[in-house]
Amino acid sequence: MGRKVHPLGFRLGVIKTWRSRWYAEGSVFVERLLEDRKIRERIRASVGHAGISDIEIERLPNQVNVIIHTAKPGIIIGRRGTVVKELRQDLEQKTGKRIKVEVQEIERPDLDAYLVAENIVGQLQRRISHGRAMRRAVQQAMRSGAKGVMIMCGGRLSGSEMARRESVSEGQIPRHTLRADIDFANV
Predict the structure, then answer these.
(1) Can you tell me whether residue 186 is helix, strand or coil?
(2) Confidence of residue 1 (pLDDT cuts 50, 70, 90)
(3) pTM (2 d.p.)
(4) Is the pLDDT of residue 103 over 90?
(5) Residue 2: is its pLDDT beyond 80?
(6) Which residue of 89, 103, 128, 133 sits 20 to 30 Å from the alpha carbon of 151, by its own alpha carbon?
């Protein structure tokens, strides 16, 4: 087993911030952590097709703020806000707390690691070659303004008997520099 450090955890407090912002101790911490996980799962299950990249959760004394970062905000909001209202009511029913849902649009989805990874997964499911899918994603990201991109695909690629790992990279990826804003996704 290698000693690899998660890029987000490595940069927490330096240039990145936590995805859940609240404080609790003891058993309350465990309850809130499980509740956060259920909220994220429920949102991904109901409107996961909307290109959701990240879900941030902030807890105030009597309210929970949920910020959804998405490439397609129109799908989550719906006509006159019906979908987001149903989602909020569903989350309030599940948690028993007042919830405020905010939707933020991702300006350049080709630079978001999670959305790029989801795109590659979709292409692999449609039987497009893994090499072609990875190269196309790297080209799109570099065209959108990324300084460097690295994509790694692993498993039984092209239906081979033996699992392997292949990667495609372009530009600079300073993985040991804490100031470097590196976006990471594992799908």
Answers:
(1) coil
(2) low
(3) 0.88
(4) yes
(5) no
(6) 103
